[in-house]
């Protein structure tokens, strides 16, 4: 009896092959032919799941977002807002091999997004999610009565910090230990922490 192929699992398998090619050889090498070879399937089989390279890359990029969202969704967070913020936002940093791989692939995709409209739309969606998450935690941690311009400023500072740490970790991994990344994040959160207030509904 022929083996039944799970189409969802096969698409993920192909996206992971994209990741491996991108990390090893760069995004410019992630052609349909090269990804099929990496995944151990024929080009015809790959095209059964993705019509072209753009669709394949878009799916692979979205899988980064979905994996981050899943990790955050299953987190057990403390009641203390400051500790909760640290726990959730740490999931957005490349602190282990899995997250380092996601981070390197994500940065390669964002560079390609400059010339690929589909990837650009997905990049903008992800950055909007991150900025909104920063705003929600900033609102919790800032003193009651902070004006909207103050919230806006702290939101952009936290957003820039997380994005900058991710870029630095990809560019100079030998100088970006997990301990160092966490130390910077927690130092920043300590600077804006006010008296405890309820954590926001939803984590991102």
Automatic annotation (TrEMBL):
<keyword id="KW-0804">Transcription</keyword>
<dbReference type="Pfam" id="PF00440">
    <property type="entry name" value="TetR_N"/>
</dbReference>
<dbReference type="Pfam" id="PF13977">
    <property type="entry name" value="TetR_C_6"/>
</dbReference>
<keyword id="KW-0678">Repressor</keyword>
<protein>
    <submittedName>
        <fullName>TetR family transcriptional regulator</fullName>
    </submittedName>
</protein>
<feature type="domain" description="HTH tetR-type">
    <location>
        <begin position="8"/>
        <end position="68"/>
    </location>
</feature>
<dbReference type="InterPro" id="IPR036271">
    <property type="entry name" value="Tet_transcr_reg_TetR-rel_C_sf"/>
</dbReference>
<feature type="DNA-binding region" description="H-T-H motif">
    <location>
        <begin position="31"/>
        <end position="50"/>
    </location>
</feature>
<dbReference type="InterPro" id="IPR001647">
    <property type="entry name" value="HTH_TetR"/>
</dbReference>
<dbReference type="InterPro" id="IPR023772">
    <property type="entry name" value="DNA-bd_HTH_TetR-type_CS"/>
</dbReference>
<dbReference type="InterPro" id="IPR050109">
    <property type="entry name" value="HTH-type_TetR-like_transc_reg"/>
</dbReference>
<keyword id="KW-0805">Transcription regulation</keyword>
<dbReference type="InterPro" id="IPR009057">
    <property type="entry name" value="Homeodomain-like_sf"/>
</dbReference>
<keyword id="KW-0238">DNA-binding</keyword>
<dbReference type="InterPro" id="IPR039538">
    <property type="entry name" value="BetI_C"/>
</dbReference>
